[in-house]
Amino acid sequence: MAPLCPAAPAPLLASLALLLHASLAVHHVPMLLWSTRRSQWNPDTAVHEGKVVSEQELTALLQPLLTQNSRNLVLFLQDRLSIDDFTYFSESYGNKNPFQNVQDILQSSPSSLVLPAVDCKATKNLLNVLQKSGDWKLTNVTNLNVSQLEVNASNPNLLVVQLQPLASDLKEISTLEEIAENDKIIGRVTMDLQERGIHFSVIYTAVRPSRISRRTDMVAELRRQLMAAEEEESSSYPPLNVTIGNDTCILFYASNFSLKANNSVLIDLTNATFLAQNVDISASECTDSNTTLSLKYTRPVNGISSLEIRFLMTNKFYEVSARRWSTLHSVEIVQDGDKLAKFIASSISTPAEYSFHCQLVGTSNLYPARLDRDPSNDEAKNWDVFISNLQIQGFNIINNQFSYASDCTGFFTPGIWMGLVTSIILLWILTYGIHMIMQLTTNSRFDDPKGPALSVPQTE
C-alpha cells in the first residue's frame, strides 16, 4: 500500500491563502475615457480583463489628454461602480439600459479607451494628480442645469461632476434608477459641450467598487474572512478627529457623506472632510455630558458661500439600564449663517463606552437609522442627507481610536422573524398531528369467523 501523503506544511497553506486573497480581492474600478479628437490612444494600449492598472500606468495612459493643445477635461466621478454593473443591470431588467447614453457616446466618439480594472488608490488620487499636471481652471459642477456652465476654451478647464451617490443599496431597483439618472447627467453635459463646438475629453470612473465578485466555488467560511479583510482594507483614510488640548474627544468617519439641496444640487463632502480636510472644526465643543461636532465648509458649491453641519450628542445616565448612554439627538444644517435646517435622529444611541456604527444613515425611509425632518422647521424640507458606513463617537475615546462599535442593526432582523414564524407554524402542525394520533382508539370487540356472528346492538 502506498504511504499516505503528509499534511501540507503551515507555510505552504499560508502562501496559498495569500494567493487566494490576492485573486479574490476586489480593489479596482472601471474607467471609461473618450475624446472628441482622434487618435488619442494607440490601439495597442488596450487593457484586457484581468489586468489591474496601477497609478503609474494610469498616469501614462492619461498623458494624451494632458498634453493636447486645447485641454478641456471633464471628470465624472461616482462613489461606487464595478465592471459587472454594465452587464448585470443591462441584462437583468430587459429593455431598461441604465448606461444607454454612455454606450452611445463611446460608440460615436472618435477615440475612446475602456479600462476594466483600475486600482482604487489611483482613482482616489486622480483629482489631485490632474490638478498637479497643469494650470487648470477647476470648476465643480453640482447643479443639474449644465447650460449655465461658463467654459473658456482658450484656457485649460477641468470640470469635476460629482454624480449622484449610490447610497440606496437595499433595493436593486433604486440603484438602477440612480445609475440611470447619472447616465442622463453624463449625456446632458456631453451634449451641451458638443453643441458649443468645444473639443473636450471625458473620464468616467468611481472611487470604490460597488459589488464583490461572485465566486461560488469557495468555502463559505474562507469567503467571509476574505470579505471581512477586504472591508478593513477599504478604509483608506483615517477618521476625522477633534482634539481639545491633548485629548481626542470626537471621532467621525463615513465612506460617503453627501447632501442634496432642493432635490437638485448634490454636495459631496467626503473628500473635503476626510481626504483634503478642507473643513473647519474649531467650533466643536466637548464636555462630559454634551458634545457638538461642527463641520464648516467655505463655498462647497456655487451659490452657497458657507455651510455648517452640526452633530449634537448627549451622555446621560438611565436608571432602568443602570448605565450611561450616548445619544445623537439631532443634526443641523446651517446655510450662509442664517438658514437653519434641523433633523431629529431616531434610534441612534449606544452605551457611552462604545461607538455607534450604521451602514446607512439619512433622510430616506429605507435607511435603518433615519434623520427625521423637524415638523416645526420648514427649511429642513429643502435638504436630503446621505451617509454611508457612519461611525461616530463623542465620549470615552481611548488612544485616539474607536471603541467597540454598537451597530444599528437590531437583533430581530426580518430574516430572524421569518424563521421564527415559520418554525412556530411547523411546530403547531407537528403538535396537532401528534395530538390527533394519540386520540386514535381501537375496537373493543372483534368478529370471530369460527364462532357465531357478532351482534352489536344499536344502542352501543
Overview of this structure, please?
The protein contains 11 helices and 20 strands. The strands form 2 sheets. Strands 7, 8, 9, 10, 11, 12, 13, 14, 15, 16, 17, 18, 19 and 20 form a 14-stranded mixed β-sheet that branches. The protein starts with 9 loop residues before the first helix and ends in a 22-residue tail after the last helix. It is an alpha+beta fold. Mean pLDDT is 78; it is low at 1-26 and 212-234. The radius of gyration is 30 Å and the shape is extended. A hairpin with a 3-residue loop joins β14 and β15. α5 runs parallel beside α8.
SSE layout and pairing:
Layout lengths: L9 H15 L3 E8 L19 H7 L1 H4 L5 E9 L2 H10 L7 H9 L2 E9 H5 L1 H7 L4 E5 L15 E6 L9 H24 L5 E8 L11 H14 L6 E5 L2 E7 L2 E6 L3 E4 L1 H6 L9 E2 L3 E12 L2 E15 L4 E13 L3 E7 L3 E3 L3 E8 L6 E5 L9 E11 L11 E3 L6 H25 L22
Parallel strand pairs: 2-5, 2-6, 4-5, 17-18, 17-20
Antiparallel strand pairs: 1-3, 1-6, 7-8, 8-19, 9-10, 9-19, 11-12, 12-13, 13-14, 14-15, 14-16, 15-18, 17-19
